[in-house]
Amino acid sequence: MACGLGAVALMFVFIKESTFSPLDIDFSSEINEINETINQLDDDIIDKENKLTVVMGEISKSEKLIILTSIKTNVVDESIKKLSSKNIKLTSVLTKLESKSETKYQPIKKEYISGCNVTGNKIIFLLDTSKSMLGKEVIDIISLSLQSDKVKNNSSKWVTGKKTIRWLIDNTPETSKILIAGFNTKVAYDVSPGEWTQINERTSIEKQLINLFSNPPNKGTNLQNTIKGLSEWEDVNSIYLITDSLPTQANRRKNAPTKSRCFNADYITGNCRIKFFQQFAQELKKLSPNVKLNTILLPMNGDPEAPYYFSDLSTSTGGCFMTPSKNWP
């Protein structure tokens, strides 16, 4: 029993003397390290979340772009389909046009000599499209000029002019190159400047004629300006001019009086027309000194001097002159 009490006493002594106390240990450094680690992890998580947000935003943009691209692709595909369909139709129309033009452009042979055979390697056909081509009489021209385009296009004199240029083209040598043009105050054509068309290019010729006939006669006549507008075709051999009267306009010369009656009068006199014609003749020589002028003069009352001046200029260049009959061509 004494031993037991001694052991208890000894333990009591040990406990009393011991300095160990768990409550006295400082864990703040370990806690701080852990907190720093936690904060670092939190920062990493936030950074990853921000990056993920950016990536998701880019994915969203890409998805929208893919949708827009798909829509645009569908629109383009539909447009291509429509254009392909139109192309097929146009090709079919062009094929029919070429088939018809082969027949349409078979040379028309008359039972009588026209007096103006078509010759030359490079030929310009000029059709007067001024207002006077609507009729023979001044009163008829004024009356028709107030009508609709359909009525104007069907006026007998204008129809004759259109038939005449077709007849000339139909009787052009197979080796020739041509230019088809209309003129009033200036020249108009449906090709590039200086471009010639082979006479066997029937489809191109038909398109040029359709363009030439698309608008009815209008405005005045300036032959000087017309020839100036043909400067790119200076290697022309022959010009076939279909008109009805002396020009009513010309370009004012640098030394001309500012109050010249020919440029300021409401009514152009015969003398002014002759002066304008002479300026045209000078311009023709500038274009090509060896060009042949061939004139087909349609009827026009009120301009009696036109046949003389056109005939004289045409024959002096080695060309022909004619006033066609009612049933020609």
Walk me through what this model shows.
The chain has 10 helices and 7 strands. With 329 residues, the chain is an alpha/beta fold. The chain has a domain of 195 residues: von Willebrand factor, type A domain (Rossmann fold, 3-Layer(aba) Sandwich), CATH 3.40.50. About 4% of the residues have low confidence.
What are the main properties of this structure?
seven-stranded mixed beta sheet, Rossmann fold
Record the SSE blueprint.
Layout: H1 2-17, H2 28-104, E1 122-128, H3 138-145, H4 149-153, H5 156-170, E2 177-183, E3 187-189, E4 197-198, H6 202-212, H7 223-228, E5 238-243, H8 261-264, H9 270-287, E6 292-297, H10 306-316, E7 321-322
Parallel strand pairs: 1-2, 1-5, 5-6, 6-7
Antiparallel strand pairs: 2-3, 2-4
Would you summarize the structure shown here?
With 329 residues, the chain is of the alpha/beta class.
Name the CATH architecture of the domain at 122-253 and 260-322: 3-Layer(aba) Sandwich
Derived structural class: alpha/beta
Q: Please indicate the percent range of residues in DSSP E strands (runs of 2 or more).
A: 5-15%
- Counting DSSP E segments of at least 2 residues, the number of strands comes to 7
The arrangement of helices and strands along the chain is: HHEHHHEEEHHEHHEHE
CATH class of the domain at 122-253 and 260-322: Alpha Beta
User: What is the gyration radius calculated from CA atoms?
Assistant: 47 Å
The main β sheet shows up as: 7 strands, mixed
What do we call the CATH homologous superfamily of the domain at 122-253 and 260-322? von Willebrand factor, type A domain
